[in-house]
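Hi U.,

Before I forget, here's the chain from the pilot set. I'm dumping it here mostly so it's searchable later in email.
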Amino acid sequence: MSSPRDWDLARTALLTIDLQNDFLHSEGAYGRAGQGSDSIAALPDRIAPLIKALRDQGGRYFSAQFTLVPDRDGTPLIAPHLKELRPFLGKGDFAPGSFGHGLVDALQPADFVIEKVAYSAFYQTRLEYIMRAVGVDHLIVGGIVTNGGVASTLRDAHLRNIETVMLTDGCAAFRQEIHNATLLSLGSVTHQMTCRDAQDWLEGAA
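Structure:
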């Protein structure tokens, strides 16, 4: 893998995974169900300066957002494993255009929003089309959860020969030991750096 410091930042995008109101806001689906974590809640403010720094270099910000497609009666189409894990999910949760589906305020606005129906931001989405259309070759990735959407997206990027940087403290899981184990397991498929180091890199490229 080439060093990220050799990347053309105008051809680089920061991609966040699932930093949405239904996951993070107190009035979202997870907040109402009492499902949350301080490490997850801290992510938007940690990532926001990186978006500005990358945009100052001509780069982009993409937001991949988990989506539950509503059936004709409004009942969301939920995968069986997710229904078992999160029985509190119901009508209106993660629905396109809803408050809960939206990107958290601290990161608004994204240059492009990618609706996704599974873990990976590449699976049956328009992410690759957008990357080609606007000339993005590299991705800086953060979001939730480390062992779910973040890991799946990074592995899918690796399979497509897309080089990535994983923000080690710009993603989080519901358990710290799972987060740590995932960082270790992904060391061979992505570059890794902290948000502070990434900000220094992006700002130093000016």
